[in-house]
UniProtKB/TrEMBL annotation:
Protein family per UniProt: Belongs to the LysR transcriptional regulatory family.
Residue stretches making up the HTH lysR-type domain: 20-77
Classification via SUPFAM superfamilies: Periplasmic binding protein-like II, Winged helix' DNA-binding domain
One Pfam family hit: HTH_1
InterPro entries: LysR_HTH_N (IPR000847), LysR_subst-bd (IPR005119), WH-like_DNA-bd_sf (IPR036388), WH_DNA-bd_sf (IPR036390)
Protein purpose: Required for the induction the katG gene for catalase. Involved in the response to hydrogen peroxide.
Designated name of the protein: Probable hydrogen peroxide-inducible genes activator
Gene Ontology CC terms, in alphabetical order: protein-DNA complex
UniProt entry keywords in alphabetical sequence: Activator, DNA-binding, Transcription, Transcription regulation
PANTHER family xrefs: LYSR FAMILY TRANSCRIPTIONAL REGULATOR (PTHR30346:SF17), TRANSCRIPTIONAL DUAL REGULATOR HCAR-RELATED (PTHR30346)
Length: 301
């Protein structure tokens, strides 16, 4: 099992030992290096009585006294010094193994269109610097479904999660809100307007990305919703439909800072509710690399 060093009876002079856990070796190395139970317990973030029990368990397992507690400072016995050399080599080799695995690890970050800036760049840089792992960007039309199906480790989602806050297969971590702008074709009468009120949007045909869009008929109360809705299945279809003047769209203002299409114009949107940005993650993020990414994502807000 991971985390255990098995000591065979024959290899230990006939001792009926069970197994020595990795925590025993780390505890012994810390006490020997720091020459103090108090300092070692603080470094290991455990209580001193728990550390003393761990050392006694190790000494019982190997059948010899490893630490001399009679002097003012704790120090290894002759047997302890010999054992310490092997423990230090084993822990160093294990650390190198962890580093090698982390360098090969890649966290799969799903997104459906235009990652938020500068949050995305800050998060990736912070995560790769602190975690020693890389981020692999995965473009997917259904980012939420990709997390539920295990095709990505975490995903950026925008807008409210329709049909409920979460499902048993996903947890939502809210990050921040984005402002919205209207988008229309350069051929549209709206292209010459400096701004549009949120309440005016339903008067125009509305192009909606039903898979990952942030705005749709659901964004207005019943009775005030657009009469004409043009449904598309992804960002590219949505954008080309707006450019073809099939209707207007509403999108987070990150699009204004990108050259997304020469055939569209952005119109300031007054009174629009903000659009939430969140991470979709598995309900129990046991993976240490994933937890580090979530921490970097929240810290970069």
């Amino acid at each position: 099992m991971p985390g255990f060093v098995h000591l065979c009876s024959a290899g230990m002079g006939g001792l009926e030992t069970g197994r020595v856990e990795l925590r025993h070796l780390r505890a012994f190395e810390a006490v020997a290096r720091l020459a103090s139970f108090t300092n070692a317990a603080e470094e290991l973030r455990i209580t001193q009585p728990a550390l003393s029990r761990t050392i006694r368990q190790l000494e019982d397992a190997v059948g010899v006294t490893l630490l001399d507690r009679s002097s003012r400072h704790v120090e290894p016995t002759p047997a302890g010094r010999t054992f310490l050399e092997h423990v230090e080599r084993a822990l160093a080799e294990l650390a190198r193994g962890f580093d090698a695995v982390r360098r090969r690890a890649a966290l799969r970050l799903g997104f459906s269109w235009l990652l938020p800036d500068p949050w995305a760049q800050r998060t990736v840089a912070r995560f790769e610097r602190t975690a020693g792992a890389a981020v692999s960007l995965v473009r997917t039309d259904d980012a939420l479904g990709a997390v539920q199906q295990g095709r990505v480790d975490v995903a950026v989602i925008r807008g409210p999660v329709r049909g409920g806050v979460a499902t048993p297969a996903v947890r939502i971590v809210h990050l921040f809100d984005e402002s919205r702008v209207a988008v229309c074709s350069i051929q549209s009468p709206l292209a010459a307007r400096p701004e549009l009120d949120w309440s005016e949007v339903p008067r125009w045909p509305l192009v909606v990305n039903v898979t990952s869009g942030t705005t749709g008929p659901w964004s207005w109360p019943a009775g005030n919703r657009p009469e004409t809705v043009v449904e598309t299945n992804n960002f590219d279809e949505w954008l080309e439909s707006v450019a073809a003047d099939r209707g207007i769209g509403v999108i987070p203002d990150v699009a204004v800072r990108r050259s997304i299409h020469p055939g569209v114009r952005f119109v300031a949107l007054r009174g629009a509710p903000p659009s939430p940005v969140a991470l979709a993650v598995p309900p129990r993020a046991r993976n240490a690399v994933l937890r580090r990414f979530i921490e970097a994502a929240v810290a970069s807000v």
